[in-house]
Design a protein that fits this description.
The structure is a homooctamer of 144-residue chains.
Chain A: E1 2-8, H1 14-21, E2 27-30, H2 36-47, H3 53-74, E3 77-81, H4 89-100, E4 104-108, H5 118-123, E5 126-128, H6 131-142
Parallel strand pairs in A: 1-2, 1-3, 3-4, 4-5
Helix pairs in contact in A: 1-6, 2-3
Chain lengths: 144, 144, 144, 144, 144, 144, 144, 144
């Protein structure tokens, strides 16, 4: 049995593809908050407007880190997807966090990022291009 | 006494500015390899050409990780600089690695990256814009 | 799923407010002993009167530490409330204990303690003024 | 040989008494920043005025935590003094932090705090009233 | 909820007294092998006669250590009883093993052993004379 | 209750003998992938042909390490069998990995390997010749 | 290079024999307090008479534990001697403490204690009868 | 600065080649005992003849493990060489031990062992064929 944390980009529904395909297998999936607006605004909504962009982001990011870091600690395997858009530094941060805790890392990224992601790929147990490859790996790992 | 690892971009000489300014203080500085070409080509040069871009990068990145991960483990404080250019996913990865090992993190980045770096800033003990601010913090920390 | 330890003052029923509001959510709450008299007298009652104020307190505090430290270790998140009265050094001690174990810390305190609690707030993932804000944060963290 | 961190109140020169008395012994002393103003203002001075009391304190406290937490990690023994004045929650926090890391704790406090400090005394290897008692203990520990 | 390992002497049925009294409480009890002959002879019976007293004991003790050390690691609390007879060095060894792993220690021993057991009592969260006192402590710890 | 990982050779069905004999006992068994072809070809099948023997093996071995290392971490006891054939370096590697993580090690090997396996036997809690001896040890360890 | 802690009985000068014989080798020796009276009375002398045998012993034992536990943590190898006299439960406690921290253990004891010390011998890397055997082992370990 | 442990076969002088080539660099080398006879016979010579092949090997292997395991723990990098001859299970065991402790692993082996060593190569930061390649890697890692 494995606990798998699905880190990385939250602008597409790539997690559903993996979770649905593995729904009959003995895998527990953990994820960050999916709802981008809720994730960005939790600080302002609950702690209050900090009247400063840096601190509004800071309060939200600290609250969301409770979920992200706790779930990485609970996981055996961390899957990180790097998509085509955005800086995605949080995805790289989560990959580093997972590596230092000795979690097994699976990285999904398009071929064009080979050079830019070489340090993260070097820490991974598998580097693939698609969600379906992650599903195949998880099904392989769970075989009796 | 502190051991400080200077992670992040290797396209400018920002590290020298900090090291020189602190040269009379009780601080040991550790750095990744500065020489970009040497860093990229170590795999091909020593292990041999893998005849494949992914694996040429992979072999080099794995060898360089010996230095990066060992030095982060030896450090008390990790300073990570995000510059204006490139993906810099390795900088974010090092920040995550350091955080999970409970190292104290200082992040340098221009104001425009506030939103993109919010998860990393949330893990930092200080977020600044310039090397001279890092120098001021280190001098403060080392005061008798 | 999270395990949450509710540390700090035991002179009001603030814990009930959080536990009741989250009763339909996937959160396990752990608490110190609520009954102040039982907590203070466990040493005298079970081990016997030590005929010395320091040792009567000492024996009780050591027995209660079995619960407090064990539950902090079992927790993912530690919520610490600083109320208006008393020294509350045990609350600050628990916050430090939780921080060193890499637990995520949420601190509740009135605005007047901003300066006195700055070191503890600096270690927290969220600083709020009320129990209902903790409830909102926990509900945010548990969202699918 | 021991490394000893002297935590707690910074409003009197109690640390000097211990350091001077042990100057011929094989003990390394580490301390927080002594200069109260420098400690409080480092954030404003280096990172800049946050235009908000909470965040001015926050930035300073986070920078100072680099020193405090790093030095507790480097120490074998942590001495914490609770004086007559102020909340001193940071002293209690440091005691908890040190305890969770399995550091040996020596607590100094006047007799009137027996009940309020019982949880911290319960975690200590020695509870004394004066600096000279700490000196006697350190000299005992270092005997050949 | 607590997991409690009952270490120490196996020549009386003191464990039953605690387990029976707590049978309606949320406590999991773990114990070493009760059957003294089985415990002593497991090596000879399964691995074979080593034709040497030292090695016959050695093989049995190593096999039994699988149970003892694994269960101490699984426990939150370790109760160690020192009875009137025998060397009981294994009980003291288990107490040291548990202490180094930061387990909470409760020691049962008659008053006459105060001086001989002072180092172990110094590491304990409670020192008592009888099983019924352990039961009272466990019931106190499990109170809602 | 114990979790037992059955490491080592995958060319015979020795694991079934242990699992079947213990099926009524409170033991959870974890194993590597049994299917040799699937294990060797997972890289080629899912990540794609690397057009290079070293990298085809490398990709498969890294994916399989997700299972092996995760399960060793989840185990209390690791049983390693060295059979008559093949290099079996992975079995020795798993034994070292388990030892460094403080797992209890049981080694099965024929008498002829006494000298070649002396370093691994030295780290073991039991060294036996057959699966039925492992079954006897597990049944002994699980006795009430 | 090794750091070696010499634990156990303090009623004979067995430590000197080892330290003197290894004085030209690259070994650092750490020891508990040799002076039995000083060791027993440190609590009464420094903290004050507790007017109670248990607490007088308790205060001394806690202070001495600062030395013993700190030095075991600093050591690579722990040598424990069991002599002919006294309970020596502290020696067994130190052996357990060292084992749980993964220190290498060497045990010295006369042949008559084979059965009583079997659990401790089972955790040892060497079991010998004399100090000169320990010297021979250390000299072997330090060979270039 | 790095500490490097040179594990693996002791039948050739491969270690000298690396140590000599790096003698002007800031690298500390640690090694197992080179003298094969001394290594095999230390048990018999110091502890005494166990009158049994298994136990004579066992006593020697346990004493030698003091050196091997202590030095791996002290190392940042572990280099393991697999030569053409012998089982070399101890080399594979050391590689597993180092990997679980998060040490960086460099493996030297001839091309013919690619398949048999795939699990160990998968854990390595570099896989090479010769000592001179290890020297090149170390010189690269130590560059200013």
């Amino acid at each position: 049995m494995y606990t798998v944390y699905l880190a990385g980009e939250i602008h597409s529904n790539w997690r559903e593809e993996i979770i649905t395909a593995c729904k009959d297998y003995d895998v527990i999936f953990l994820t960050p908050e999916y709802d981008h607006t809720s994730s960005d605004d939790i600080g302002k909504n609950v702690v209050g407007d900090q009247e400063n962009d840096f601190y509004n982001d800071h309060v939200s990011a600290k609250i969301n880190s409770i979920r992200n870091h706790t779930y990485i600690k609970q996981a055996d395997i961390v899957v990180v997807k790097f998509g085509e858009k955005y800086k995605q530094w949080n995805a790289a941060f989560d990959a580093g966090y997972a590596t230092a805790l000795n979690k097994k890392l699976i990285v999904i990224h398009p071929g064009e990022f080979i050079h830019a992601l070489k340090e993260i790929d070097a820490a991974a147990s598998a580097v693939v291009k698609s969600q379906s490859q992650v599903v195949d790996i998880l099904k392989h790992l769970i075989r009796k």
